[in-house]
Design goal:
There is one protein chain. The chain is an alpha/beta fold. Helices cover 60% and strands 9% of the residues. The chain has one domain: Dna Topoisomerase Vi A Subunit, Chain: A, domain 2 (3-Layer(aba) Sandwich), CATH 3.40.1360. It contains 6 helices and 4 strands. The chain has a 4-stranded parallel sheet with strand order 2-1-3-4. β1, α2 and β2 form a beta-alpha-beta unit. α1 runs antiparallel to α5 and α1 runs antiparallel to α6.
Length: 139
């Protein structure tokens, strides 16, 4: 069992490392709220992180802001619950209509690994801590 957990932890860490690289290369990340942004900071993800559900902004407001800043690609990392999945699909559609490339690869990869256990980006930090403690108990 611990081999499975170790592999899972390593896969999540690799995804987060790639996410940090893309962010450092200037590709903005869109999350739902401030706590999601703060969670990404704990994983050393330091680029531009935009929140989709703060300050009363709609998805169309977010798309307009992206267009104003002449951004050609964004990473969508909304929550993993039903509303997050629906929001990701809707925002992806709006971005594509505006000819902005929505990268959902990181979301899909993380969802495949943690979707049953974590409902939001904010929950990733505690999930990783739980994985680490389970692994240290098994060693």
């Amino acid at each position: 069992m611990s081999t499975h957990l170790e592999e899972k932890k390593e896969r999540i860490e690799k995804i987060l490392e790639r996410l940090a690289e893309e962010s450092a290369n200037g590709i903005p990340i869109i999350v739902e709220g401030k706590k999601d942004r703060e969670t990404l900071a704990t994983f050393e993800i330091k680029g531009k992180i935009m929140t989709a559900k703060t300050g009363g902004q709609s998805f169309l407001d977010i798309v307009s802001e992206i267009e104003r800043n002449d951004i050609r690609e964004v990473i969508l990392l909304l929550d993993f619950d039903r509303r997050g999945r629906q929001g990701t699909a809707r925002l992806k559609g709006y971005l594509e209509k505006a000819r902005i490339k929505p990268n959902t690869r990181f979301w899909a990869d993380l969802y495949a690994l943690v979707g049953r256990y974590v409902k939001d980006v904010e929950g990733l930090a505690s999930y990783m801590e739980t994985l680490k403690s389970k692994l240290s108990c098994n060693s």
